[in-house]
Amino acid sequence: MLMTPPFAAPGELIPLLKKQGYAVLSPQGVCALAGCELAELNALRAGWEDLPPDAHLKDGGHYRRRRHSCFVADGGALTQAPHRAHWQPVEYNALHGGMERWFEPMEQAAVEAPAWVKLLAALADVSSQLKGPRPWYVEAHQFRIDTTDGIGRPTPEGAHRDGVDVVAVFLVGREGIKGGETRVFEAEGPAGQRFTLTEPWSLLLLDDERVIHESTPIQPLAAGAHRDTLVLTYRAGNFQGAPG
């Protein structure tokens, strides 16, 4: 049986993040937070139908497709940054850390959509309420995990932090699968929670300094089984990049 997410009201978001390091919003809560309609968010889902394969999977898998783009959110303004590689240190990603990974950028129709701008700006405001006002360096990842290999791994690196300040994980779609359970744990303690996001545009928001997270593998229940997510990371100071 799927465990129901502990949905919070938008007004509870900051107190919960300060108390436990994470919070979960329903699609309706996300719309209230971003000031948009669910139909506007659903219009973005077409962008997940043309994701190139991830050529950097070091476990030899072929189950992940993705695009990646970067933005700077500053005082309500959102600017797309020049295309760059995605890079993480091995301390945060033991499997893929320490290497520059170049992915195709998001399609312009998506990043110019009003709902996209509202969504990223709203989460920049949440990050500033949690960590203090400043420019936020945002990396956006569109993921499709499929079952080409018989099993798909949303987080092949295992339970992890991302090396940023705030992480937002949206479920965009879930078709013909079992598994894909979300797990959140204290970074410095034993407490944790598990649940399964099933509604498109439900959101897990994380204080990356305080918690680690993962999603369990998926298996097919029907042909074409897959799980689509949008991951947004907010980092103060600059984008992560290889030292030197």
Gap between N and C termini: 49 Å
One letter per element, helices H and strands E, the order comes to EHEHHEEHHEEEEEEEEE
Give me the number of helical elements: 5
The structure class reads alpha+beta
CATH architecture: Sandwich
Query: Radius of gyration, rounded?
Result: 17 Å
Care to describe what's here?
The N and C termini lie far apart (about 50 Å). The protein has about 240 residues and is of the alpha+beta class. The model has no long low-confidence stretch (mean pLDDT about 95). It has one domain: Jelly Rolls. The strands form three sheets. An eight-stranded mixed β-sheet has the order 1-2-10-6-13-5-3-4. The chain has a three-stranded antiparallel β-sheet with strand order 9-8-11, with no helix packed on it. The radius of gyration is 17 Å and the shape is globular. About 40% of the residues are buried. β8 and β9 form a beta hairpin. The chain has helices spanning about 15-20, 25-35, 40, 110, 115-130, and strands at about 5-10, 20-25, 65-75, 75-80, 135-145, 165-175, 175-180, 180-185, 190-195, 205, 210-215, 220, 225-235. Helices cover about 20% and strands about 30% of the residues. The protein is built from five helices and 13 strands.
